[in-house]
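Discrete fold record:
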Amino acid sequence: MNLTEILKLAGKNRKRKRIGRGIGSGSGKTSGRGHKGAGSRAGAKRGGMGEGGQMPLFRRVPKRGFSNADFRTDYHVVNVGDLEERFDAGAHVTPEAILEAGLIRNLRNKVKVLGDGQLTKTLKIEASKFSKSAEEKIKSAGGEVIVL
């Protein structure tokens, strides 16, 4: 038997631990904080960067170069095969329509259409980017590509 198999009502609501209510409670006097030191004081937070007098790691390691990560463009990726499944022939596919179909999570990032899968329906697709294979498949199926 373990906690996942317990009856619904038997162990459902656990009583909260009452701290600082006498020695008999098991967490009286120092209230589980131990004796003296920064951890026993009010407002104590454990900082993760201190190394007790040793030069901290982030100051020992040299800083070099430039990272372009802050300036990159993130895309939601949608495959041609997914559009085939979710949309009817002749549909006008916009990022909003793709969101409603549940293929992307939000409209914060741009949408890129990739060429994985088959496309037989004629679709008019609006997106920020298309791969070459996706563009070819859409046009060969009689569809239209619109770059936003």
